Every structure is written in C-alpha cells, then in structure tokens.
Amino acid sequence: MTRRRITVAVLLSVFLQFAFVSPAGATPPGIPTAATAKTYLTSLTVAASTHTTTYDRDLFPHWITISGTCNTRETVLKRDGSGVVVDSACASSSGSWYSPYDGATWTAASDVDIDHMVPLKNAWISGAWAWTTTKRQSFANDLTNPQLMAVTDNVNQSKSDQSPDSWKPPLSSYHCTYARMWVKVKYVWALTVTSAEKTALTSMLATC
C-alpha cells in the first residue's frame, strides 16, 4: 500500500470513529472527576430527612431573569442545545436537545424540561428548610454548578423529587456522571444525604 493510501485509510478511520459516536449530552459546568466526587461524598453529613411535610415549591423562586429577556430555563436551553435560535422574547424557536438521561433527541423545546439535579424538595428536606428565600432562589437558579440541565420532559417527571436510591437515569452508562453531579451539588450547598442515598451514590461512582 502506498503512503498516500495509508494516509487516506488512517484519515477515514479517524472520521468513522467520530462520525458514529453518540451525540454529546447536556454538559453543565463544574462536574468533578470521579475521584473528587468520592472525596466530596465522604465529607457529606449523613442524616435522616427532616421537615418532610412543610415543603412548598414556591419557597424556591424560579425562573429568574438572567440576561435581557432570558430567564434561567431559556438560558439552559441555549447552553445545552445545538443550533438553538431564539426570538425577541428569548423563546427557543428551533434547535435540538439531546437528553443524556435516556438518549433521546428533541427538536421542540416543549419536549424538554430543565431538571434540578438535586430536586428542590430533596434540598428542602436535606437542609434548605433553614435557608433564607434569597439562598433558595440562588439554589433553584444555580448556573455555576451542575444543578440544571435540559432533559426529556417525561423522564424528568418520572424522577420527580427522588434521590438516587429511588431513581436513576434510564441509561446506566450515565450513572457515573449523574452521581458526580449530584454529589457536587450536595457538597457545594452543604446539604445532607441519607444513608440509603450515600450507598446508592457510592455504587454509582464505582461504575466510573
């Protein structure tokens, strides 16, 4: 085989490797390595859930204005989507969104929810009940940490307010990343974990 043919073959091989990989999913900022997540997890306080009957979603104001006419939901849709076009009100008029929870791709923003990695109720029963409304608002609109991401709406609804010991993404290949994000949010916001939650997270991080 000539050098030219070898070069073409190599280039074709590289192209095929990238052409058929799974589409990249939403990638929120601040996702730690598995090793760091494991360290964070060991430092979290293990405690039973409290104030389980006093949660009210209105105690976590969202979505707030982030820039211009764009609120938090619209900002995440633009960040996590591909080819997203918005109108003057910042509503997404076109684009596509790949949901890493289930591997589905959507072309209508109405099919996509913005998931709170650590659900608002879970935050409430693991420490946020003691926060000010201002702090709860910051948590509900946190764009600095891996707390918000665009996912398939009915998958997000099936998750609801459940922690990893009760619910995991349908795609087991995403469990490692999911656990890394969950632990980072709990660590940054100094929220507690239950014993069952910690066990589930330990198992998920073991898949990394």
Rg over CA atoms, rounded to whole Å, is 19 Å
Strand composition percent: 5-15%
> Strands of the biggest beta sheet: in what spatial order?
3-4-5
- H/I helix tally: 8
- Main sheet properties: 3 strands, antiparallel
Low-confidence stretches: 1-24
Helices and strands, in order, run as HHEEHEEEEHHEHHH
Q: Name the structural class.
A: alpha+beta
**What separation lies between the terminal Cα atoms?**
41 Å
Shape: globular
Notes on the structure:
With 208 residues, the chain is α+β, with helices and mostly antiparallel strands. It has helices spanning 3-19, 34-43, 72-80, 120-125, 133-140, 153-159, 175-188, 195-205; strands at residues 65-67, 70-71, 82-86, 92-99, 104-106, 112-116, 148-152. It has a three-stranded antiparallel β-sheet, with helices on one face. A hairpin with a 4-residue loop joins strand 4 and strand 5 (104-106). Helix 2 packs across helix 7 (175-188), helix 2 (34-43) packs antiparallel against helix 8 (195-205) and helix 7 (175-188) crosses helix 8. It is globular, with a radius of gyration of 19 Å.
